[in-house]
Amino acid sequence: MNVSTPARPGSRTDRGAERLLRALAAVxxxxxxxxxxxAGTTLAAIARTLAAWERLPPDDPRRYCRxxxxxxxxxxxxxxPFQQWSLEWxxxxxxxxxxxxxxxxxxxxRERAARWRDEPNRIAATVRRLFPPDARVxxxxxxxxxxxxxESLPRGRRPAEVIALESRPGGxxxxxxxxxxRSGVRAQVVPDLAGRRAAGRADLxxxxxxxxxxxxxxxxxxxxxxxxxxxxxxxxxxxxxxxTLKGVERRRPSRPLGPLFDRTPARLVSAYWTDRGAFPxxxxxxxxxxxxxxxxxxxxxxxxx
Length: 305
Fold this sequence. Notes:
This protein is of the alpha/beta class and 305 residues long. It has two domains: 12-118, no CATH class; 131-303, Translation initiation factor eif-2b, domain 2 (Rossmann fold, 3-Layer(aba) Sandwich), CATH 3.40.50. Helix content is 50%, strand content 14%. Strand 1 (136-139), helix 6 (144-152) and strand 2 (161-165) form a beta-alpha-beta unit.
């Protein structure tokens, strides 16, 4: 990723922007952390830069804003926060007068940071309200949202068992199962090739997400789409546990996702459980605009088949 800025060489503002762009380049190279962790790192770096800009406003803040928007968009093409934030920074650069630009960006940063802090507890509240007790769950990868939500369940409503696919090539499923077992949730790992059989025997397939696009399609770890398809064929509900910060207003990714991710169409999703409530499958965009829609427990849905 190009980390150069169009600023005055050697200025304090130039150095601050360069540090932010280098931080975004490091985020783009990170293959160990998920979307939530990388988003938090990015928000902290943005806050430091904007604090410096408040003390020393740049000569041409619009050009800085555009450079950072481009860097956000190329850092993690599969992760929703970076794609959406890129669109928002570009929009601010295009529409806000220069004398108000830094103030608008600081307001943007405060709002995004507050949502980032609040999301896990709000998602967990939605999951606690709807999770079917004693369910057999199948999942893939190492979603922080899924883990926190399952750990937040009271003991009487925890899953009977969580089956985590190994999630090659990174093998995150093993670490995910260990995380759950340390918190007292029964969990085991199975090979990815056993995913179809596991989904057919499950009560619920519970997925995280790196991004949700306006058409409701979900970007997540490679192997997610085949797992969701197997669940659909078996009549098992597929629920995506995701914060709305991962929503992207585009209908489809603007860049290739790379070999570590795939995209699951909205028709395979039964529901989205989010920080804003529960949204029916296939209605992501409408639900985000109008507020949460009431959905039933996945286990009750399955019992009506």
